[in-house]
């Protein structure tokens, strides 16, 4: 019986260390821009093009844009690059070898000369040790902020 208890006490902390729960940070994902809808829409599409972010679907009438996944990290610096942009799942046994993101952008007219832009960034990191799959990460707000700044510069 003592061996079983010892084995359980040894295995449980190991499994807990491999937990894959990340805490979603609170970020600013919505910005009101003092410009007409058409101006903001053009600036947003131009920004995506300049940043080489490929568009998967676009519908100006509804204000929706969805991009394709963009690999932003691969190889030795992957973990640092992911940490700069997102919060990874917890655990000490993970080996991150790639990072990617895609954007869902919603643009709406919110006033005569005001347009609201909401950006939802979907991050994933490829874990190459235990899970061997893409795992969801949470944005820390850097991508959204960069996008808002670039759009504002064009309006």
Describe the protein's architecture and organization.
Helices cover 33% and strands 37% of the residues. The protein has 155 residues and is of the alpha+beta class. The protein has one domain (21-154): Alpha-D-Glucose-1,6-Bisphosphate, Chain A, domain 4 (2-Layer Sandwich), CATH 3.30.530.50.
Helix content range of the residues, please? 25-40%
Strand % is: 35-45%
Question: Would you state the CATH class?
Answer: Alpha Beta
Rg over C-alpha atoms, rounded to the nearest angstrom: 20 Å
Helix-strand pattern:
HEHEEEHEEEEH
Shape: elongated
Strand segment tally: 8
- Main β sheet profile: 8 strands, antiparallel
Question: What average pLDDT do the residues reach?
Answer: 89
Low-confidence stretches: 5-19
The CATH architecture designation is: 2-Layer Sandwich
Structural class: alpha+beta
Distance between the termini: 72 Å
- Number of separate helices: 4
Number of structural units classed as domains? 1
Q: Can you tell me the CATH topology?
A: Alpha-D-Glucose-1,6-Bisphosphate, Chain A, domain 4
SSE topology:
Elements: H1 2-17, E1 30-33, H2 37-50, E2 55-59, E3 64-67, E4 70-74, H3 78-85, E5 86-87, E6 96-111, E7 114-127, E8 133-139, H4 142-154
Antiparallel strand pairs: 1-7, 2-3, 3-6, 4-6, 5-8, 6-7, 7-8
Helix pairs in contact: 2-4
């Amino acid at each position: 019986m003592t061996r079983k208890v010892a084995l359980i006490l040894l295995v449980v902390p190991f499994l807990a260390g491999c937990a894959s729960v990340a805490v979603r940070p609170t970020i600013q994902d919505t910005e009101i821009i003092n410009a007409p809808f058409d101006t903001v829409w053009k600036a947003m599409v131009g920004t995506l093009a300049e940043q080489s972010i490929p568009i998967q679907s676009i519908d100006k009438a509804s204000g929706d844009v969805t991009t394709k996944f963009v690999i932003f990290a691969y190889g030795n610096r992957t973990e640092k690059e992911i940490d700069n942009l997102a919060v990874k799942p917890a655990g000490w046994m993970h080996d991150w070898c790639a990072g990617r993101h895609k954007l869902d952008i919603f643009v709406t007219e919110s006033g005569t000369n005001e347009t609201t832009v909401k950006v939802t960034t979907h991050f994933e990191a490829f874990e190459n040790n235990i899970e061997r799959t893409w795992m969801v990460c949470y944005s820390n707000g850097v991508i959204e902020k960069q996008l808002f700044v670039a759009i504002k510069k064009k309006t």
